[in-house]
TrEMBL record:
Keywords assigned: Membrane, Transmembrane, Transmembrane helix
Pfam families on file: DUF3043
Record region (Disordered): 15-97
Protein name stated in the entry: DUF3043 domain-containing protein
Keyword set includes Membrane: yes
Comp. bias intervals (Basic and acidic residues): 65-97
InterPro entries from the UniProt entry: DUF3043
UniProt feature, compositional bias: Low complexity: 55-64
Presence of the UniProt keyword Signal in the record: no
Superkingdom assignment: Bacteria
Organism in which the protein naturally occurs: Streptomyces cellulosae
Length: 209
């Protein structure tokens, strides 16, 4: 018997079906039920409404918290400056600036405030001397120059004497305290007129500190 003959058309049809099935198997599976928001970025699922609202609330809360913290800091600084201003007028040690705090600085202030200091009259004397020097009279201009020299010498001598006395008293009264800068602090205070000094004087002239 002759061998069984298979038609060529049947062979080609079977091969074409096999290739289509292989291509279908390799194709990625997609979920037709999943929909994407046209405004959502490609490759990302659309966020749920509750999640979006939560993010917006979080951003709003963070912004509000920062504003409140900034306002609170400004209020605290303003209150601190007000307390310092009142302390400079009343001498309240709790709220004085750091340069004025402590028993050593307080004693130095009282030492200067309890006595007359030549340096505190420098400003009014300088005005008088300046007026005399502007007058076009030779004798008055000579007197003004002499007064300048006298005032400067008196201020230097008085400051040196006050510095030595204050340094000695501080060593006797505060042997274990930090006294650094206290004498210079007191001498700078002596250059100011009594009514303009801050903190305000707490002792009268002639009163022992």
């Amino acid at each position: 018997m002759p061998p069984h003959h298979v038609p060529l058309a049947f062979v080609f049809r079977s091969r074409a079906k096999d290739e289509k099935a292989a291509v279908a198997d390799k194709a990625p599976l997609t979920n037709s039920k999943q929909t994407r928001d046209p405004q959502a970025p490609k490759g990302r699922p659309t966020p749920k409404r509750s999640e979006a609202q939560s993010v917006r609330r979080s951003v709003a809360t963070t912004t509000t918290s920062r504003k409140e913290a900034s306002k609170r800091q400004r209020d605290e600084r303003r209150a601190q400056l007000e307390r310092q201003r009142q302390a400079l007028a009343t001498g309240d040690e709790r709220y004085l600036p750091a340069r004025d705090k402590g028993p050593v600085r307080k004693f130095a202030r009282q030492f200067i405030d309890s006595r007359f200091n030549v340096a505190e009259f420098f400003l009014p004397m300088a005005v008088v001397i300046l007026v005399l020097s502007m007058v076009r009279v030779g004798s008055l201009q000579s007197i003004a120059l002499l007064l300048w020299l006298v005032v400067i010498v008196l201020i230097v001598l008085d400051s040196i004497a006050s510095g030595f006395r204050l340094k000695k008293k501080l060593a006797e009264r505060f042997p274990d305290e930090n006294r650094r800068g206290a004498v210079a602090y007191a001498l700078m205070r002596s250059l100011q007129m009594r009514r303009l000094r801050l903190p305000k004087p707490q002792v009268k002239r002639g009163e022992r500190p």
